Here is the input.
Amino acid sequence: RPIPLTEYLKVNSGVYDASTLKLIYNIQPIVKFKSDTGDVINLCLESLLAGHSVLVFCPTRSWCETCAQQIAAEFRRIGYEKTDVGLQVREQLDGNAISDVLEQLKRCPAGLDQALGRSVAFGVAFHHAGLTMDERDIVEGAFRTSVLRVLVATSTLSSGVNLPARRVLIRCPPRSRDADVLTYRQMVGRAGRMGKDTEGESFLICNGSERGLGEQLVRAQLPPVESSLVVGDLSSSLKRAVLEVIASGVVSTTEDVEVYTGCTFLASSTGREELGDPLAACVEYLQVNEFVRVTGHALGATPLAEACLSASLPPDQGLKLLKELHRARQCFVLESELHVIYQVTPYSVSEQWGQLDWLRVLSLWE
Here is the structure.
């Protein structure tokens, strides 16, 4: 990292060093709030007064919107008070720039979302999959230019959009199966803006019952990176990779295939010599199942291979779909739309049913 990162674990009012789990200090609120779960508003206010921006990660859309509106409401209340803190809040928020952002949001095809408008008016916004593309672009641009000082988002922002901030706050989810170490590392990696900040800091916020999970997350190590082109059994990933470069015309000979696979992470991590047998078996599989034509050392794609490439299907699923289509030609049922729906449903969808965390699906839906 070009910018140092300091990680904290916050349990109730105590702030602990993430590496040693030793208590550093207890939070002393700048302002007393009626409802500030996890001291999120105080931590945001602290950064605002210091002239910095904050990213707050919440597990669900509804939580994002509620949290953003609570922070904005308190900023509004403090800003109207004739106190030193109120004066500082007014100085930090650029009213003219915020008005411009609101005007841009009003000109969106969907108009100004009322919940978003109430938050943006006081330098706060939420960001999740429910926003339109226009709304996302406007919110992201305003946050990058520090017109918006607090952005409350779902975890998808940690990996999908480059929006760093000086301080990152992570709300520990109540159902945290998805709160794995990779997601956590992506979130804390947003702390610190190159060229604007000299350091970054992250707070993983937990209550007493979530302390064990919090300690596990901050101390966990990232798993080693492994290639998806698994060697041993003839993997679907390896067959798909070879098929796609042949069908797209990237390679045209067996020597080209060897050069291509030699440039993969798998080759660098295991050695090129270990790829020989699986690669030969892969080409043989594609030839036997009529995906490629082999003439000497030359390789050519068949219409089946081109169809799989166009449909983004791996060879195994392509063969399965071809078999289903042949069967449908013999007895296609037209009494209802059920058979048509069955034919067009991607296999990847049905294969995921058994792996889904339905409580997680429910929380995302809500």
The first helix runs from residue 40 to 49. The CA atoms of residues 108 and 134 lie 6 Å apart. The two ends are 36 Å apart (CA to CA). Residues 5-219 form a domain with the Rossmann fold fold (CATH 3.40.50.300).
